[in-house]
Amino acid sequence: MVQATAFLLVLSLALGAHSLSPRRSPLIQCNLVGNWVNDLGSKMEILAVDRDGSFSGSYLTAVTASMNEIQESPLQGSLQRKNQKGQPTFGFTVNWTFSDSITVFTGQCFLDKDGKEVLKTMWLLRSHVDDIEDDWKATR
Predict the structure, then answer these.
(1) Which Pfam family, an example, fits this chain (predicted)?
(2) What is the pLDDT of residue 63?
(3) What CATH number does the domain located at 34-137 have?
(4) pLDDT by residue (tens digit) across 5-50?
């Protein structure tokens, strides 16, 4: 339990990586669709963003402190479509298939000085605990 929590704490999910397949629309210069890799080698794929901003995909972490085998995990998210400035905010949830935890991320897509897409995120992880007295150690 604690090991699964610890591995997710190590993720360092700033996702400060570049898209491998950027596609730009006229209104949203920074596009989430594609493959992303963070500085630790974790991989995220966002398949499509709907008109309402909903998206789905998968996440494959490269790091773990768990004894469980790492598996690709599904993600569901939402992009803020009201931002017409080209660097949208977004949020997504990863339901880890190999542990009893879930992580939510919130972030923004930026275009750096060279025009490359960069995601900056913050995350919050919740692990299962057996008793309410242990609630204090379930969220990281």
Answers:
(1) Avidin
(2) 76
(3) 2.40.128.30
(4) 433 333 434 344 434 334 444 444 788 999 999 988 999 999 999 9
Tokens 């400035």 map to which residue?
Answer: 85
Q: What are the distances in angstroms from CA 59 to CA 28, 34, 102, 124?
A: 23, 12, 12, 15
Domain borders along the chain are 34-137
Q: What is the pTM of this model?
A: 0.75
Number of CB atoms found within 10 A of residue 91's CB: 16
Q: Is 79 exposed, middle or buried (0-12, 13-18, 19+ CB in 10 A)?
A: buried
First to last CA, the chain: 13
